[in-house]
């Protein structure tokens, strides 16, 4: 620590020197997941704590996929989620290769004006005379007839003009032209969307008999529409119906306007105030940095015209999504890699659409990280024997059984009311409830407590049921078999629905890492100690640093782990240090010649090693109680020799 510079004029110099080191408060109970969402940017994860936040960022329900229903159920159960959207990519390493069509919209700067030409019925003629209007588009295909009328007895000039224009309008769907009439005079208007090109059209009129009529040959007055184009950031139908409202600026400056953008189904609108009505290239760049999930594709232009404008045309095919899209890419940060930089969550829950390939990919991701765990569901509607086959990769399945301490598998088929129609019962995964259980448990108890059983594993809705109750007496043998293979379940005990089990998919059952809560504890410890140790990076590798690391880790061990039933300890002043847990390192070495755990060559290479050895408190899985009726004579013997 640098000392104060005591120099210059004599006096007293004071300063505050921070020597404190506390464990910072962090968000807890956050569950990472991915799924098909109505919208949202790939390669990005969204922190969602309410259904309103979900709809604001990710839209509502998606036709043909239930992910939003699971997310809503998890959130309403108390979970906080980090969600990344799943899309299909033609090349998973190229984020621009996303499949589908982006929704677009435009804000007018110059409204389209359609070209017109006038005409008039100048003499009414006699019955049987005819009048025919034609237009040459000057496209090389010759003139097209747009209207005709044969005069009836007694028709005046104005009646003839009205009948001719009626015929034009009756056939607008064929040729696009429309007409209007004022007494004997009429006006022909070019088709919508032709703008200034309509100025090249030539009109002509042909009459028979004594009827006479005129029309000005050249269409005039057409002006092209000009606009500022908006585009959704990704292809999806979830942006269709998004509105952009342009209004006078609240500041009163006529050269500016206010924008209000409402993503479809979002309960929250984005307002951008005092926007220049005429946009420069820099204005466009600045707006794009502010816009949420939209961007302006027009380089510059204006002035923006007041009004409400809608976006449309977005589409994709969700059935194109593959296992590769779920796995994602560490280049584009899609799939599971969207969580690469997440440090405030240690849990992933795969809500639905599980299969062996996705499990394996997720397991590899978790192993590479070493600081996250996941719950994955067994596919729905399997019999008990099929569940056994799925776990082993036998029967109808041909995959290698999952063997990973970071992954826990769950039979979660639940019989619940549909989210949109509560009169309909559906078999759905219980993974949303598992997410809620784990989130609440981490917040209320601690990451190392089991999330199963009556205390922390209850699913509160009394209308919930399960398709197969593995806790039932008739299913005990089968449940025993799959549980020993690392499959937990949502069950009904004493008419209460709950998560039941504490196993990971690690096949070595002699390892403590086959216990769910032990792995959770290890991951939690890794995250906390790593955050402390990182602060020591690039400090001098000497006894001062070694001792400082120990002094900053030890309060976490004693005040968090020992005091909260995470590891075995005792009530002594040392809390069981060097008896029930050990911090092995060279924290008490006086100099480099005094080290015993490290070696000099590594110390000189800037390396320091330490090890935390502890006995985790394992969640209770089995309680054996003997019930022993006896006679009075035997009881007397037991009393004498307990």
Describe the overall structure.
With 642 residues, this protein is of the alpha+beta class. It folds into four domains: 30-92 and 320-518, Rossmann fold (3-Layer(aba) Sandwich), CATH 3.40.50.11780; 104-110 and 225-310, Immunoglobulin-like (Sandwich), CATH 2.60.40; 116-215, Immunoglobulin-like (Sandwich); 535-642, no CATH class. Helix content is 24%, strand content 22%. It is built from 15 helices and 27 strands. A hairpin with a 7-residue loop joins β14 (256-262) and β15 (270-276). It is elongated and about 135 Å long. The mean pLDDT is 92.
Would you spell out the secondary-structure blueprint of this structure?
Elements: E1 30-35, E2 46-48, H1 51-58, H2 67-76, E3 80-85, E4 104-110, E5 116-123, E6 130-136, E7 143-150, H3 157-170, H4 172-175, E8 178-182, E9 185-189, E10 202-207, E11 212-215, E12 226-232, E13 243-248, E14 256-262, E15 270-276, H5 281-290, E16 294-296, E17 307-310, H6 323-327, E18 347-349, H7 356-369, E19 373-377, H8 384-392, E20 407-411, E21 413-417, E22 425-429, H9 431-444, H10 453-456, E23 465-466, H11 476-483, E24 487-493, E25 496-500, H12 516-534, H13 543-562, E26 581-584, H14 600-604, E27 611-614, H15 632-640
Parallel strand pairs: 1-3, 1-18, 18-19, 19-20, 20-24
Antiparallel strand pairs: 2-3, 4-12, 5-9, 5-11, 6-7, 6-10, 8-9, 12-16, 13-14, 13-17, 14-15, 21-22, 21-23, 24-25, 26-27
Helix pairs in contact: 2-9, 8-11, 12-13
């Amino acid at each position: 620590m640098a000392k104060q510079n005591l120099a210059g004029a004599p006096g007293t110099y004071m300063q505050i020197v921070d020597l404190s080191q506390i464990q910072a408060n962090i968000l807890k109970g956050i569950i990472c997941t991915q799924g098909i969402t109505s919208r949202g940017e790939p390669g990005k994860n969204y922190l969602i704590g309410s259904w309103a936040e979900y709809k604001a960022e990710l839209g509502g329900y998606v036709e043909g996929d239930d992910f939003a229903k699971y997310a809503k159920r998890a959130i309403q159960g108390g979970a906080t989620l980090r969600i990344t959207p799943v899309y299909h990519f033609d090349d998973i390493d190229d984020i621009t290769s996303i499949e589908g069509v982006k929704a677009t919209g435009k804000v007018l700067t110059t409204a389209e004006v359609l070209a017109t030409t006038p005409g008039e019925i100048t003499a009414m003629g006699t019955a049987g005379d005819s009048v025919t209007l034609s237009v040459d588009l000057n496209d090389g295909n010759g003139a097209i007839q747009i209207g005709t009328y044969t005069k009836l007895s007694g028709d005046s000039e104005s009646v003839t003009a009205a009948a001719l224009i009626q015929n034009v309008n009756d056939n607008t769907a064929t040729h696009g032209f429309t007409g209007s009439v004022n007494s004997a005079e009429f006006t022909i208007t070019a088709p919508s969307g032709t703008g200034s090109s309509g100025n090249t059209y030539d009109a002509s009129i042909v009459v028979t008999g004594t009827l006479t009529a005129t029309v000005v040959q050249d269409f005039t007055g057409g002006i092209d529409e000009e606009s500022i184009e908006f585009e959704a950031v990704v292809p999806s139908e979830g942006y269709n119906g998004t509105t952009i409202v342009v209004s006078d600026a609240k500041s009163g400056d006529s050269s500016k306007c206010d924008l209000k953008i409402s993503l479809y189904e979002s309960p929250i609108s984005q307002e951008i105030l005092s926007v220049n009505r005429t946009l420069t290239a820099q204005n466009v760049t600045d707006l794009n940095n502010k816009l949420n999930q939209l961007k302006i594709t027009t380089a510059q232009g204006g002035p923006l015209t007041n009004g409400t404008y809608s976006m449309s045309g977005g589409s994709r095919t969700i059935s194109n999504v593959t296992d590769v899209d779920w796995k994602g890419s560490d280049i584009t940060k899609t799939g599971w890699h969207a969580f690469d930089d997440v440090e405030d969550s240690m849990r992933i829950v795969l809500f639905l659409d599980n299969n062996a390939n996705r499990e394996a990919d997720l397991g590899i991701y978790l192993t590479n990280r070493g600081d996250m765990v996941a719950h994955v569901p067994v596919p729905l509607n399997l019999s008990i024997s099929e569940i056994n086959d799925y776990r082993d990769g036998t029967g109808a399945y041909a995959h290698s059984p999952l063997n990973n301490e970071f992954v826990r598998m769950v039979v979660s088929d639940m019989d619940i009311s549909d989210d949109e129609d509560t009169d309909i019962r559906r078999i759905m995964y219980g993974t949303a409830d598992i997410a809620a259980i784990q989130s609440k448990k981490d917040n209320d108890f601690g990451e190392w407590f089991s999330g199963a059983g009556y205390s922390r594993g209850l699913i509160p809705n009394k209308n919930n049921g399960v398709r197969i109750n593995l806790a039932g007496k008739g299913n005990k043998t089968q449940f025993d078999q799959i549980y020993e293979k690392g499959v937990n379940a949502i069950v009904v005990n004493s008419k209460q629905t709950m998560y039941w089990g504490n196993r990971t998919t690690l096949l070595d059952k002699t390892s403590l890492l086959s216990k769910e809560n032990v792995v959770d504890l290890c991951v939690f410890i890794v995250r906390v100690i790593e955050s402390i140790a990182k602060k020591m990076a690039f400090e001098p590798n000497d006894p001062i640093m070694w001792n400082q690391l120990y002094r900053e880790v030890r309060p976490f061990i004693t005040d968090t782990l020992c005091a909260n039933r995470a590891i075995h300890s005792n009530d002594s002043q040392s809390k069981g240090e060097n008896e029930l847990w050990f911090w092995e390192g060279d924290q008490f070495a006086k100099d480099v010649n005094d080290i015993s755990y490290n070696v000099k060559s590594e110390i000189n290479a800037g390396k320091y090693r330490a090890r935390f050895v502890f006995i985790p408190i394992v969640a209770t899985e089995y309680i054996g109680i003997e019930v022993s009726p006896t006679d009075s004579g035997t009881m007397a013997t037991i009393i004498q020799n307990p």
